[in-house]
Design goal:
With 230 residues, the chain is α/β, with parallel strands linked by helices. Helices cover 35% and strands 17% of the residues. It has 2 domains: 119 residues, no CATH class; 84 residues. The chain has 6 helices and 7 strands. The structure holds S-adenosylmethionine (SAM).
């Protein structure tokens, strides 16, 4: 077993990690993007600073920046202790070491907190949660969901996953989800059923290998899109 987490934790990743997790090309970074369950990721802050169009949605955006930072600080030690206790479960090619991971997560959270404190009311950070999102049909080109769906398969049911993915497909032309592993480093038990249902409904479904890997074996994303005439 690699990790025990009672709740979904506010741990965030950077723009560079999002680029690699979702194999985002320079051209795709210019799309109208929704980050679902973005939490304290600095993806929105960093890409917006470069002129990108990103909206993030997460239930923690109901809190103020200092409260989110405090939540992160509360879980950081516990998570790092679990990571350090399971060294074989992690691939260190990106972060270098557990200390590198800790430093990167702190840097990301600081970048997020600073941006969130400034732009919380600008409409680019929205408090809301799956499986029901307050957006119009096809409002976004691309919806990304990192480290929430599939990862927390023990905490959320198949039907929650299905409703959430259908909702993301309602509001975006394409949906990408990373990783496909659970916290136990096993492929999510929901993946096959979700794949089958999506294919039955006529979506194009693909598992794509990506260059980012931290959880050992966690280097694949799910890509779902409408067929051209859909
Ligand atoms: C581990 S963090 C991942 C943050 C970010 N996606 C990243 O990879 O850096 C998981 C996030 O899921 C959010 N979350 C929990 N329940 C949710 C729900 N029902 N809908 C959307 N987000 C949710 C949490 O608030 C938390 O910020």
């Amino acid at each position: 077993m690699t990790m025990k987490l009672e709740n979904v934790v506010p741990f965030g990743r950077s723009l560079d990690e999002y680029r690699k997790m979702f194999a985002l090309s320079q051209c795709e970074l210019g799309l109208n993007i929704l980050g679902v369950a973005d939490g304290p990721a600095s993806f929105n802050a960093e890409l917006s600073a470069l002129g990108g169009r990103v909206t993030s949605i997460d239930p923690i955006y109901a809190f103020q920046a200092p409260q989110i930072k405090a939540q992160f600080e509360n879980v950081l030690g516990k998570i790092m202790a679990q990571v350090e206790a399971t060294p074989d479960d992690w691939v260190w090619s990106y972060h270098g070491s557990a200390d590198g991971l800790r430093a990167n997560r702190i840097r990301v959270t600081d970048t997020f907190v600073e941006d969130f404190a400034m732009r919380r009311d600008s409409g680019c950070y929205i408090a809301g949660e799956l499986p029901s999102l307050p957006f119009a049909d096809r409002q976004f080109d691309l919806a990304l969901c990192s480290h929430f769906l599939f990862l927390y398969s023990e905490h959320f049911s198949l039907e929650f996953h299905w409703a959430s993915i259908c909702e993301m497909l309602r509001i975006a032309n394409e949906v990408r989800i990373f990783p496909l592993l659970t916290l136990m480093l096993e492929k999510s038990p929901y993946l096959a059923t979700i794949w089958q249902r999506l294919a039955q409904q006529g979506y194009s479904v693909e598992i794509r290998r990506v260059e980012y890997q931290l959880q050992r074996g966690g280097n694949e994303m799910l890509v779902v899109s409408r067929m051209a005439d859909g």
